[in-house]
Structure formats: structure tokens, C-alpha cells
Design brief:
The protein is α+β, with helices and mostly antiparallel strands. The chain has 2 domains: 96 residues, Alpha-Beta Plaits, CATH 3.30.70; 45 residues, Alpha-Beta Plaits (2-Layer Sandwich). Helix content is 24%, strand content 21%. The radius of gyration is 15 Å and the shape is globular.
């Protein structure tokens, strides 16, 4: 399946991905409205964009009591805002912390219809849109980098 992958060693923490995402979906520059959230590990100066990896099966879809979250024919998680009650079950169920609520509606990466704006605009090319089965957590990426650089975590 095609998904957005993160190369942690390339991320500069500029958060442009957050701004591009919020503007593409909400016509506002606001990290709170982004489907991407950059987390920071300040001790070693590491940053990592967190977004939906379109897991299959998807715990957030399974947890939704109203069926507001579904997988499209393209394999992308979609939100039916009219069916969503804003209960937050999807947020609690997502094992990657990639789902957030804004005004009681879930913000979940929809891959921008197959042309993710965050990938196109990432100045360091830390984000790629590629066929991959790999799903990495930020902690795993940070641990790998620190090990490669010979730094004790």
C-alpha cells in the first residue's frame, strides 16, 4: 500500500508540513487543524512528523461506534462528518497517536487524494509517498538514529 514515510534524520522540525496540511484542508495556517503533528525530542534535537499510516486493519475505524470512519475504495481512511458524533473513540483507539479532534471532528490524513501536499512541499525531503508495509513509531526512529550516531538515549 502507498503511504507517507518519514526519514527522521532529514526532518528539520520546520513544521511546514503542518502548515501546508492545514491550509490544504481548512484554508487556514494552523497546526491545530493539521492532520500532521510534528513531535519534538528536545534533548537530542530530533523531530518527527506523525500522521495516519492507513493501517489495515485500522483500530480507529473499528472503534467508531457510528461508522463515521470507513476505508475508501482507494484504501484511505475517510471521515463522514455528518455521521460523526465527536465521541473521540477513534483518538483513543489509534495506536500511532495520528488522530486528533477539532471541534469534535476527527482530523485524519487522507493522503490529499493521492498527492500529499506535505510530501510535495517538504523542503528537506523527510517525507516520501511510496509503496511500503513499514509502519514506524517516532520512538523507534529516534532510538535507531541515536544508536547509529553512538549516542546513549
Amino acid at each position: 500500500m502507498k503511504r507517507i514515510q518519514v526519514e527522521a534524520e532529514r526532518c528539520a522540525g520546520c513544521r511546514l508540513c503542518e502548515m501546508i496540511c492545514s491550509f490544504r484542508h481548512e484554508a487556514k495556517f494552523s497546526p491545530a487543524l493539521s492532520r500532521v503533528r510534528v513531535i519534538k525530542e528536545d534533548r537530542h534535537g530530533l523531530d518527527y512528523p506523525v500522521l495516519c499510516h492507513q493501517c489495515d486493519p485500522c483500530p480507529a475505524v473499528a472503534a467508531c461506534p457510528t461508522g463515521a470512519l470507513t476505508r475508501s475504495s482507494r484504501g484511505v481512511i475517510e471521515v463522514d462528518e455528518a455521521a460523526c458524533t465527536g465521541c473521540g473513540a477513534c483518538v483513543d483507539a489509534c495506536t500511532l497517536d495520528a488522530v486528533h479532534l477539532d471541534d469534535s471532528k476527527p482530523l485524519i490524513c487522507d493522503l490529499c487524494g493521492g498527492e500529499p501536499a506535505c510530501v510535495e512541499r517538504c523542503p528537506t525531503r523527510a517525507l516520501t509517498f511510496t509503496d511500503s508495509e513499514e509502519i514506524r513509531r517516532p520512538e523507534e526512529a529516534f532510538r535507531e538514529l541515536l544508536g547509529r550516531w553512538g549516542i546513549a538515549g
